[in-house]
């Protein structure tokens, strides 16, 4: 770390390099905080959390039980060990509670007086934090998987919404209506993210294995779709459609500067993309992790082999039985042929 500091002071290194190195060091050294606990309110799984960026003090959580909780993260006890208390709860006794699982919660980026939640009950609700009553309710025809508000937008107040429908819905927070749909996906929309750099740029991910990047000011279609093979047709499938993953794409995240986009899929892969041109940067996040400890053992860790989806079972049956060896242990250079 001293080497990074010296190089930065001498002007030999970009300050961003030091920041990335320190961020990486901290991530690799994460461990459970034994001094801080959080009130246990949910009676079922917690699907989503969000911390407001104004003070970094209040956290939202949404659960599979339909409950939404607001926590105060500040330590008011003046003791090293403390519990983050629940400030307020939209519980099962509330007439406004979501009937089914809450999939996404998000604070309004510019004011903690409002937050938004979306649920499998086919609704998205805009909440007044003080009264814990919905100021607006958007109704959809299918389950709502995700929503996102731009963290930087000044010229629009749009909420992007991904549902069981193939179309991405754009809802206007000011008018309380759905004003636009984005058509291009062939499956359910599982994740949506606004760029933190350009307020009109939106990325969307779907069960169709595709990630589309849009300029919402254009009605003609998406700007481009991400191609994991960067145009190399010898590696691509016979389909003409570009795919970002060999499976459902269920996660999107822009880097803080908005220059790159990270995606995750059910193929157990993460990919990093140049958000300006859609190129796959080909960063290899690997298949295996190895760890060593005081118990004198070196352990190999791999993702749990996921059972085939319903639509994949027929394909597997036609092609015969699947190999039982985890693909993470298969090499790519040898052959079974004599």
Automatic annotation (TrEMBL):
Chain intervals for the UniProt region annotation (Disordered): 310-338
Keyword Zinc: no
Tagged with keyword DNA damage: yes
GO biological process assignments: proteasome-mediated ubiquitin-dependent protein catabolic process; protein polyubiquitination; response to light stimulus; transcription-coupled nucleotide-excision repair
Start and stop residues of the WD repeats: 95-137, 182-217, 242-283
Location of this chain's protein in the cell: Chromosome; Nucleus matrix
Keyword annotations: Chromosome, DNA damage, DNA repair, Nucleus, Phosphoprotein, Repeat, Ubl conjugation pathway, WD repeat
InterPro entries referenced in this protein's UniProt entry, alphabetically: Rad28/ERCC8/Ckn1/ATCSA-1, WD40/YVTN_repeat-like_dom_sf, WD40_PAC1, WD40_repeat_CS, WD40_repeat_dom_sf, WD40_rpt
Pathway: Protein modification; protein ubiquitination
Subunit structure and binding partners: Part of the CSA complex (also named DCX(ERCC8) complex), a DCX E3 ubiquitin-protein ligase complex containing ERCC8, RBX1, DDB1 and CUL4A; the CSA complex interacts with RNA polymerase II; upon UV irradiation it interacts with the COP9 signalosome and preferentially with the hyperphosphorylated form of RNA polymerase II. Interacts with ERCC6/CSB (via CIM motif); promoting recruitment to lesion-stalled RNA polymerase II (Pol II). Interacts with KIAA1530/UVSSA. Interacts with a subunit of RNA polymerase II TFIIH.
PANTHER family the UniProt entry points to: DNA EXCISION REPAIR PROTEIN ERCC-8
Chain's role: Substrate-recognition component of the CSA complex, a DCX (DDB1-CUL4-X-box) E3 ubiquitin-protein ligase complex, involved in transcription-coupled nucleotide excision repair (TC-NER), a process during which RNA polymerase II-blocking lesions are rapidly removed from the transcribed strand of active genes. Following recruitment to lesion-stalled RNA polymerase II (Pol II), the CSA complex mediates ubiquitination of Pol II subunit POLR2A/RPB1 at 'Lys-1268', a critical TC-NER checkpoint, governing RNA Pol II stability and initiating DNA damage excision by TFIIH recruitment.
Protein name, per record: DNA excision repair protein ERCC-8
């Amino acid at each position: 770390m001293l080497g990074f500091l010296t190089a930065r002071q001498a002007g030999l290194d970009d300050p961003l390099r030091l920041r990335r190195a320190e961020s990486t060091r901290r991530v690799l050294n994460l461990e459970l905080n034994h001094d801080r606990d959080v009130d246990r309110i949910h009676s079922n799984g917690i699907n989503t959390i969000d911390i407001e960026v104004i003070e970094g003090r209040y956290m939202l959580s949404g659960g599979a039980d339909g409950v939404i909780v607001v926590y105060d993260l500040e330590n008011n006890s003046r003791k090293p060990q403390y519990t983050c208390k629940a400030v307020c709860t939209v519980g099962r006794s509330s007439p406004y509670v979501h009937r089914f699982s809450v999939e996404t919660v998000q604070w309004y980026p510019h004011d903690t007086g409002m937050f938004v939640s979306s649920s499998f009950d086919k609704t998205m609700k805009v909440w007044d934090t003080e009264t814990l009553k919905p100021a607006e309710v958007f109704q959809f025809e299918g389950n709502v998987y995700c929503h996102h508000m731009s963290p930087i937008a000044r010229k629009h107040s749009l909420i992007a919404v991904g549902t069981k429908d193939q179309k991405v819905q754009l809802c206007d927070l000011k008018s309380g209506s759905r004003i636009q749909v984005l058509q291009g996906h062939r499956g359910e929309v599982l994740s949506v993210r606004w760029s933190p750099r350009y307020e009109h740029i939106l990325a969307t991910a779907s069960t169709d294995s595709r990630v589309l990047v849009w300029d919402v000011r254009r009605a003609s279609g998406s700007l481009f779709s991400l191609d994991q093979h960067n145009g190399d047709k010898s590696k691509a499938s016979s389909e003409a459609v570009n795919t970002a993953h060999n499976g459902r794409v269920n996660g999107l995240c822009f880097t803080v500067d908005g220059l790159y986009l990270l995606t995750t899929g059910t193929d157990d892969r993460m990919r990093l993309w140049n958000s300006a041109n859609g190129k796959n940067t080909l960063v290899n996040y690997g298949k295996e992790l190895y760890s060593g400890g005081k118990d004198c053992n070196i352990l190999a860790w791999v993702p749990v082999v996921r059972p085939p989806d319903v639509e994949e079972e027929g394909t597997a049956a036609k092609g015969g039985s699947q190999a039982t060896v985890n693909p993470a242990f298969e090499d790519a250079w040898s052959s079974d042929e004599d």
